[in-house]
Write a structure and sequence with these properties.
By secondary structure, the chain is an alpha/beta fold. The protein folds into two domains: about 220 residues, 3-Layer(aba) Sandwich (Rossmann fold); about 150 residues, Rossmann fold (3-Layer(aba) Sandwich). The chain is about 45% helix and about 10% strand. The strands form two sheets. Strands 2-1-3-4 form a four-stranded parallel sheet, sandwiched between helices. Helix 11 links the parallel strand 7 and strand 8. About 0% of the residues have low confidence.
Length: about 375
């Protein structure tokens, strides 16, 4: 299998604390520049302290790395896989330093966030620019390919079947675990991370907007349809949000999953499957916001509730990364490709459009991996 022009793959993730003493410094990294008081960070950190002061995300990334390396090797693909984080060790800049020392020239980048928005896409592209600028020294990051890696972020994959099929199976398992007398009428509640309304409106290509919400609605409908096809029963479904963290005067996407459960209880809904469709593995938002808070809310309301599994290290999700690399490699070689997807929206772009998922606070902050990025301008000059 031809992966040229790539000689490496990067797993780029959010990062998380690995010990109690890491929690507040980690949260300071996450919120840098926002002026959030330290006492508020300590308060938020209680979520982590309740789980031993350790986020599950780094261990999940280690497991995913091992599965990904095994999958590539089994497919006969000799491609080193590196790992870098935005907010905690191993930091992306350190990873790029190692890649440069190893002589890596061009790498595909897989981000552990499947959707389009500033925080789930463009901010990672800003991180890539900043990290590569640090490697390139005084030179334009677009010239880094001369002595360091050119970086290509793989497309948003929220509707890739390698991601959605494990989610479908998770919902089926959760439904089967509900008591038979409530199973048929159970509501599917798809949940993702809330973001500010303004960020949601700016997500996706300029002029289209609202991509974050539209992508979640589209993939949720596709998953619900697959569940109905497998069970012979159509389940009503809805989309809710978790993990709001902004000031109360700033509108964020609603409804909050706990408020939504109360609304469903008022409607007489007696059973739900909570599906964390916005997350690729059991992040803190899943184990705290859903497994701890939302399931407790459901229990208080007398609702039978089950939380379905994330894609995690499911072999189909791991193989989807390989598929995305091969797809992008072929496109970069100028060969025809037919990207796979489910739902009505179709596969996303490879190179983000100008102004995609705008940064409201710093609209001119440079990024990589967009059609107007310096790396591609340098490519055109060569």
């Amino acid at each position: 299998m031809d992966v040229s022009p790539y000689d490496a793959l990067v797993l780029l993730s959010f990062g998380g604390p690995e010990a109690p003493e890491d929690v507040v410094p980690f949260l300071e990294n996450v919120t840098r520049g926002r002026g959030i008081p330290r006492e508020r960070l300590v308060e938020v950190g209680e979520h982590y302290f309740g789980f031993g002061g350790r986020s599950p995300i780094n261990d999940q990334n280690r497991a995913f790395l091992a599965a990904l390396r095994a999958d590539l090797a089994a497919a006969g693909i000799d491609l080193p896989v590196y790992w870098g984080n935005r907010n905690w060790e191993p930091y992306l800049a350190d990873t790029l330093t190692q890649m440069r020392a190893d002589g890596i020239r061009r790498a595909a980048v897989f981000v552990t966030s499947a959707y389009s928005s500033y925080s789930s896409c463009r901010q990672y592209r800003e991180n890539l620019y900043d990290a590569l600028a640090g490697q390139a020294g005084p030179a334009d990051p677009g010239e880094a390919g001369r002595d360091g890696p050119v970086l290509d972020k793989l497309r948003p994959y929220f509707n890739h079947p390698g991601f959605t099929e494990p989610v479908v199976d998770g919902v089926l398992v959760a439904l089967a675990d509900l008591p038979a007398e409530v199973r048929e009428d159970a509501r599917l509640v798809f949940v993702t991370h809330s973001i500010p309304d303004t960020m949601a409106a700016a997500s996706g290509a300029p002029g289209a907007g609202d991509a974050y919400r539209r992508q979640h609605l589209d993939v949720s409908a596709a998953i619900a349809d697959r569940v109905a096809a497998e069970t012979g029963t159509g389940h009503a479904w809805s989309l809710a949000y978790c993990s709001r963290s902004g000031p109360p005067q700033m509108p964020w996407l609603e409804p909050d999953v706990n408020d939504h459960l109360r609304e469903l209880s008022d409607e007489g809904v007696g059973a739900v499957v909570i599906c964390p469709v916005g997350f690729v593995s059991d992040h803190m938002e899943v184990v705290y916001d859903l497994d701890t808070e939302a399931l407790a809310t459901a229990a208080e309301l007398g609702i039978q509730a089950r939380r379905s599994a994330t894609a995690g290290t499911d072999r189909r999700f791991v193989a989807a990364v390989r598929d995305l690399v091969l797809e992008r490699a072929a496109a970069e070689r100028g060969e025809p490709v037919a990207p796979v997807s489910v739902g009505a929206l179709g596969a996303c772009w490879d190179r983000c459009p100008v102004g995609c998922c705008a940064n409201a606070r710093e609209p001119d902050r440079p990024t990589l991996c967009g059609v107007d990025s310096p790396q591609y301008a340098a490519e055109a000059r060569r």
